[in-house]
C-alpha cells in the first residue's frame, strides 16, 4: 500500500471539504469517506461486539482490514 495522505489533512477547510460522514450511531460505529485530490477511501470503524451492516457508496473498494485481520495489500474487493 502506498503512503496515504488521506489521514494527513491539516486544515479545517480541507477536512470539511474532503470528509463525508455516511453512518454513525451511539452503538460504537462510524463510517466515512475521505475524498481528496490523490485518493478516495471509505472507512468503517465498528467497535461493537457484533457485525454491523453499512451501506457503502457505489464503486470498487479494496478491503485492507476485516474483523481481526489487516494487511498492507488488499484482502478482498467490494464492487
* Tally of separate helices: 1
Rg calculated over all Cα atoms? 13 Å
Strand order of the largest sheet: 1-2-3
Q: Helices and strands, in N-to-C order?
A: HEEEEEEE
Strand content: 35-45%
> What best-fitting shape do the alpha-carbon axes yield?
globular
Distance between the termini: 19 Å
Low-confidence stretches: none
What's the count of strands?
Answer: 7
Percent of residues in helices: under 10%
Class derived from helix and strand content: mainly beta
Q: Give the averaged pLDDT, no decimals.
A: 84
Largest sheet: 3 strands, antiparallel
Give me a quick take on this structure:
With 79 residues, the protein is mainly beta.
Keywords:
single chain; 7 strands; 79 residues; globular; two-stranded antiparallel ribbon; mainly beta
3D structure, described in words:
With 79 residues, the chain is mostly beta strands. Helices cover 9% and strands 39% of the residues. The protein is built from one helix and seven strands. A three-stranded antiparallel sheet has the order 1-2-3. Strands 4-7 form a two-stranded antiparallel sheet. Strands 5-6 form a two-stranded antiparallel sheet. A hairpin with a 3-residue loop joins strand 1 and strand 2 (29-35). It is globular and about 35 Å long. It starts with 11 loop residues before the first helix and ends with a strand. 0% of the residues are buried. The model has no long low-confidence stretch (mean pLDDT 84).
Helix-strand blueprint:
Blueprint: H1 12-18, E1 19-25, E2 29-35, E3 40-46, E4 61-63, E5 65-66, E6 69-70, E7 76-78
